[in-house]
Write a structure and sequence with these properties.
The complex is a heterodimer. Helix content of chain A is 68%, strand content 1%. Chain A has 15 helices and two strands. The longest helix of chain A is centred in the middle third of the chain and has 27 residues. Chain A is globular. The relative contact order of chain A is 0.15. Chain B has a single domain, classed as ABC transporter involved in vitamin B12 uptake, BtuC (Orthogonal Bundle). A two-stranded antiparallel ribbon of chain B has the order 1-2. Chain B is globular and about 55 Å long. The chains are: A mainly alpha, B mainly alpha.
Chain lengths: 352, 298
Amino acid sequence: MNRNLKIIFGLVLVLVFIAGPADLTGLGIPWPGLKRYGTYILTLWLVTAVAAMGVNLIVGYAGQETLAQAAFLGIGAFTTALLQKAGVPFGLNFLASGVICFIVGIALGFPALRVQKHYLAFVTLAFSVFVWLLIRNEEWLTGGVNGIKDIRRPILLGISLRPALYYYWLVLALTAVLTAAMWWLLRSPWGRAFTALRENAIRAESLGIDVRGYTLMAFAIGSAYAGFAGAMYAPLVEFIDPSPFALGASLQFLLMVVAGGAGSFVGPFVGAVVAVLLPEWLRFAEGYYLIIFAIIVMLLMAFCPTGIVGLFARLTTKARRPHADDKGPSLGGPNLGGDPTAAATTVAGANS
Amino acid sequence: MNDFIQLIIAGLATGSIYALAAVGFTLLWQTSQTINFAQGEFVMLPAFFALAGMKFFGLPFPIAAIAAILLSMLTLGVLFKTVVVDPLHKQGTLPLVISTIGLAILLREGVKEFYSAEAQRFPSFFPNINIGTSAANGGSGFNVSADQIGVLIVATATILLLSWFLASTKTGRQMQATAQNPTVARILGVNVERMVMYTFLINGALAAIASLLISPIYLAKFSSGETLGLVAFVAAIVGGFNQVRGAIVGGFLVGIIDNLVAAYISTSYRQAVPLALLVMIILLRPQGLLGRAEERAV
């Protein structure tokens, strides 16, 4: 694709996102827009994608594993809900949710990253359950299993964003800002350092990159994205309780990012399609949809571990060069090699 | 004091079941770098094999139980290895982790859709009697069920048998060699592939035994794998991710702590205490209670 075509394609995409769910019949375009539920699902997709972008930074770029993204989403959602009940405006809630998750991320990652590779995963797993227990048990704060009801959508410049479409536009704008920030981050020297330590942590360290510092930053920023997503999630659903923030949901975030394509910029958006829209499309299958979902994920991992984005890239390369052997970006770096012999022979420098 | 002893015995009984699951988990990790996020579902499923055997084929319970163990070795051992693990092995740890998360969903929802969403009563191998005397009859007030003792004996015997097998038989030692260093083991003439397969078979059998022991206590339910998997995971890490002995100690420890916390501190935070232990162990003694420092790059 040449440059002009890319720009046109991008503009069309932006237009579709802005106008897609709206009723355009008034403008003479025969498109009735999406119904309230459709707009809700589309908004949920954006919110999920923001949290998944955070996972992608941690997993796909910094080469770590997090099993606490739903817990951070919960922290963000409850922060926003509680602050709103205290009368704080949405803009501040949104920032506070992200900042709190960032701080908690630092506090959690700092000790965990002292030790070996998988230990961040273990610590986040424990953290995930802690947060869920806190949300469920501390009724004075979170309402326990009854949750928090009637979370209002914000009012912007005197216009209430209560209608699904207006709130969608707000979420779309915030998602665009966060996506641009992530894009900038990954292209800054910081982002290059993230990639360097994913590809080869030992070499990155020998080149003078503070591996622990950068990994910690990636984890904290990734967690902050879940906080931002949580801040958008609470007013979207208007009622929050402990269940969407359990460990299973955190596992699902990891799953959707790897299924979408970890380490690819659009991966989280594709992954969120798998997690949010696929269940809607598989609705005809009723109870079997999770079974179908699980089988799709397992097949995808077996035949294309680089995810849907990797699959797509492979198909398009094959179409252009019939015998292209495209292995795609390596997942988790060479130290994660699954072959036991390879693993045994790489002596761990990262452990010391 | 009697209460305390009762709680310890109850803790040992559930802990011994956790140990079975944790040992299987550790074995898989050791020999094939498989972090099995479906381990809890592996412990949930065999009880349903037995239930299905009794319901659809009219098998008597003991035969259904044996059939369940064999079927588990076949499906959770051989099938799991050949269909799920082997194709993903060269892809690295993360895709395999994701695939086992998918497998967990598949098993959970499969049982829910094809058997039942309700918790199922499950027969016990042991008579439903209490050992000891009740305080009301002038006894010591000491009260332990035969079920708990039976569970403890069977699980401990299984673990001892496995330990003996690993330490004292030729195959067991070959399996240990495979776990420690597959390259050298292969050079020394160990059939590494076969040893890895044995590990998966053993994991299937251990999961099935754990399932048959725990289901009479907590009922058989499609969703019970979530907590069981977490507990096995915690027990394995607490004990030392790379040591079978560690997983055994971790299992018992988690079982006892779980019971004591529920009785003396708080039932609503009982899940948190083993996890707090886990975090402390990771920070203070990353190789686990009994583990040695990991020699491979993990």
